[in-house]
Specification:
It contains 15 helices and two strands. With 368 residues, it is mainly α. Helix 2 packs antiparallel against helix 4 and helix 5 runs antiparallel to helix 6.
């Protein structure tokens, strides 16, 4: 005698209740909570960054001015307040969002492509390479693409650098962590030497511009600069999440990924181009801001695991939050002076990188 499915479920205690959430369901819940938390923190930081500074604007007035501009009621500020908010603060906030999201997303892609947690555009020399292109365009007075000249030069130099590092680090079909780091050190040193040469031949005005640019800062943010970096950043940020599933398969190893239909070499080349695009866009307008691409993906991976479907967009969101908060701290901690943003991120990022090296070495039992 057979029984129906409904009869069996009624006869089994607890069979009619939903199954408990497994690791996947729990991870999706964590990812949702992290995304909501990051978004809420980002909105708060953006409002604080728009309102705080030498000319304080209450948060209520900031929101009211937004509503007025969007035709949702509210009221405009006085002439000085409107000028400070819309011509000084908001370009800076938007630029911090774009640069931070680009660096965070580039870091997550780099770590996924190379299959190790220490890869980051700054650590393996991409930022320094892009800096060479940007510094060269300043020192040589290049202007063949107008406002786009520095971005184009930074992108070309960053792309050449990442291809060089990738080629030199790869041996026998594998990319070794130690070789990657050491190659990055060598490329960083070479890029530093080239930047030094350009500074040597630059005039005083160019040296001042290069020096402040190298320290990393958003102080010169304007709407034209936002528009100059916007296409590169948006294109890279839109393309990156489409490769999350393939990065998950690549994390299983190159051979299993190939058996599952992933063209590994093509995937790496495409994502290396995306990383160069994102990094060059960020470096061209903000200078060298290191460790964001290393720190943010790591923290999110520790919180929610290695799945790239959350990690890639989550790192973009986290990077934007870190840079908006960092820029707010840089211009308010030592008020009326302003700390260089790149110096601030390096102060916090360097100890984290050292801790990460020690932790990875302890887990793997040494590098050799």
């Amino acid at each position: 005698m057979t029984t129906s499915y409904d009869e069996r479920t009624r006869a089994t205690p607890g069979a009619g209740t939903p199954p408990p959430a497994g690791p996947t369901g729990k991870r999706r819940g964590t990812a949702f909570a992290l995304t909501a938390g990051l978004l809420a923190a980002l909105i708060v930081c953006c409002l604080l960054s728009a309102g705080l500074g030498a000319y304080n604007i209450p948060l209520g007035d900031v929101v009211s001015s937004f509503q007025h501009r969007m035709g949702l009621g509210g009221s405009a500020l006085d002439r000085v307040g409107e000028s400070v908010l819309w011509n000084v603060r908001l370009p800076r906030v938007v630029l911090a969002l774009l640069v931070g999201a680009s660096l965070g997303c580039a870091g997550a892609l780099m770590q996924g492509v190379f299959g190790n947690p220490l890869a980051e555009p700054g650590v393996i020399g991409i930022s320094a390479g892009a800096a060479v292109g940007a510094v060269a365009s300043i020192a040589l007075g290049l202007s063949f693409f107008g406002n786009w000249t520095i971005t184009v030069c930074a992108f070309a130099a960053g792309l050449a650098t990442v291809l060089l590092v990738y080629t030199l680090s790869r041996s026998g079909g594998r990319t070794e962590v130690v070789t990657l780091i050491l190659t990055g050190i060598a490329v960083n040193a070479f890029a530093g030497a080239l930047i030094g040469l350009f500074i040597f031949f630059a005039d005083n005005a160019q040296i001042t511009q290069i020096t402040f640019w190298q320290l990393g800062s958003l102080a010169q943010a304007t709407w034209p600069k936002v528009l100059a970096v916007l296409p590169c950043a948006v294109l890279g940020l839109l393309v990156a999440p489409f490769y999350a599933r393939k990065l998950d398969l690549l994390a299983l190893g190159e051979r299993p990924a190939r058996h599952l239909g992933v063209d590994v070499e093509r995937l790496r080349i495409v994502l290396v181009l995306v990383v160069a695009l994102l990094t060059a866009a960020a470096v061209a307008v903000a200078g060298i801001i290191s460790f964001v691409g290393l720190l943010v993906p790591h923290l999110l991976r520790m919180a929610n695991g290695p799945g790239h479907r959350f990690l890639v967009p989550g790192s973009a969101l986290g990077g934007a939050l870190v840079l908006v908060a960092g820029d707010l701290a840089a211009r308010t901690v030592a008020d009326p002076a302003e700390l260089p943003l790149g110096v601030l991120t390096a102060l916090f990022g360097s100890p984290f990188f050292f801790w990460l090296l020690r932790r990875t070495r302890r887990k793997q039992g040494g590098w050799a």
